[in-house]
């Protein structure tokens, strides 16, 4: 993946900067800004116009797309989403990821795997990223409901989009974007067959939602419940590593 090398030996040049606004969100921000200016300048309704200015700032903030420093450990599986780790459970992968697709792409099987669920509030960055480097073998969109994304049944009933990625060694990692109460559209940036770099942007979910990650067999998570995950940076697991990780809420 193209970008400047930053490492623990001090290489690189890092500094704070305003995050970019993803193109997908610029139109929403401009529409909100135009409405706010109409109330402020054309109608002189400050009681409506100024709150709309705050809404405009919120819209631009929602679609912010900050740079991320992606760990290059080949065995690291990184978080595809910003948010709170709200569920870690063992469950069979979704049907859309289980079986062969009939075109030579194998699935993850029907055995239970570890699923790590990351809940994104409206205050989190909503650009989702590839958890590993490899080929996108499957991308399946499923229409559905808009239940609270924090509910377990949301993974089966809500609008969602499944990704299945394969590393060079054949290891499979699946993940699912799930719409929530406020989210109303899942937007992909990639298509099946694409070669993706770890941390590459793959899509977004508009206005609050959840991402489930299905780890390969024999792999346990490196994150704990209640931990804050950062897309493209937080290592949520390492291939083939299975050990207990504990934390204390303070």
From TrEMBL:
Active site: 209
Subcellular location(s) per record: Cell membrane
Functional summary from the UniProt entry: Catalyzes the formation of phosphatidylethanolamine (PtdEtn) from phosphatidylserine (PtdSer).
Modification comment: Is synthesized initially as an inactive proenzyme. Formation of the active enzyme involves a self-maturation process in which the active site pyruvoyl group is generated from an internal serine residue via an autocatalytic post-translational modification. Two non-identical subunits are generated from the proenzyme in this reaction, and the pyruvate is formed at the N-terminus of the alpha chain, which is derived from the carboxyl end of the proenzyme.
Catalytic activity as recorded in UniProt: a 1,2-diacyl-sn-glycero-3-phospho-L-serine + H(+) = a 1,2-diacyl-sn-glycero-3-phosphoethanolamine + CO2
Example of a GO MF term: phosphatidylserine decarboxylase activity
Keywords from the named record: Cell membrane, Decarboxylase, Lipid biosynthesis, Lipid metabolism, Lyase, Membrane, Phospholipid biosynthesis, Phospholipid metabolism, Pyruvate, Transmembrane, Transmembrane helix, Zymogen
Modified residues (Pyruvic acid (Ser)): 209
GO CC terms in record: plasma membrane
Membrane topology: Peripheral membrane protein
Assembly notes: Heterodimer of a large membrane-associated beta subunit and a small pyruvoyl-containing alpha subunit.
Transmembrane segment boundaries: 30-63
Record-listed E.C. numbers: 4.1.1.65
Protein name per UniProt: Phosphatidylserine decarboxylase proenzyme
Pathway annotation: Phospholipid metabolism; phosphatidylethanolamine biosynthesis; phosphatidylethanolamine from CDP-diacylglycerol: step 2/2
Organism the protein comes from: Croceicoccus mobilis
Pfam families: PS_Dcarbxylase (PF02666)
Note describing how the cofactor binds: Binds 1 pyruvoyl group covalently per subunit.
Site description Cleavage (non-hydrolytic), residues in chain: 208-209
Cofactor(s) named in the record: pyruvate
Source taxon at top rank: Bacteria
Any GO BP annotation: phosphatidylethanolamine biosynthetic process
Similarity annotation: Belongs to the phosphatidylserine decarboxylase family. PSD-A subfamily.
InterPro entries reported for this sequence: PS_Dcarbxylase, PSD-A
């Amino acid at each position: 993946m193209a970008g400047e090398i930053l490492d623990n030996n001090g290489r690189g040049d890092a500094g704070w900067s305003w995050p970019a606004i993803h193109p997908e969100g610029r139109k929403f921000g401009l529409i909100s800004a135009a409405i706010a200016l109409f109330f402020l300048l054309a109608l002189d309704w400050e009681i409506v116009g100024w709150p709309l200015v705050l809404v405009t700032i919120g819209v631009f903030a929602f679609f912010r797309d900050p740079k991320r420093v992606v760990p290059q450990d080949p065995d690291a599986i990184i978080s595809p989403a910003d948010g709170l780790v709200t569920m870690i459970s063992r469950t069979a992968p979704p049907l859309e990821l289980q079986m062969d697709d009939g075109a030579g792409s194998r699935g993850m099987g029907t055995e239970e795997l570890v699923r790590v669920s990351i809940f994104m509030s409206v205050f989190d960055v909503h650009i989702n990223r590839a958890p590993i480097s490899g080929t996108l073998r499957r991308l399946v969109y499923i229409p559905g409901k808009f239940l609270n994304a924090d509910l377990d049944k949301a993974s089966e009933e809500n609008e969602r989009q499944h990704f299945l990625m394969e590393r060079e060694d054949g290891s499979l990692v699946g993940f699912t974007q799930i719409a929530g109460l406020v989210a109303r559209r899942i937007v992909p940036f990639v298509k099946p067959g694409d070669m993706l770099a770890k941390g590459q942007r793959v899509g977004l979910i508009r206005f609050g939602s959840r991402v489930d990650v299905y780890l390969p067999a024999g792999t346990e998570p490196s994150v704990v419940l209640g931990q804050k995950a950062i897309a493209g940076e937080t290592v949520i697991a390492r291939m083939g590593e299975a050990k207990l990780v504990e934390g204390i809420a303070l």
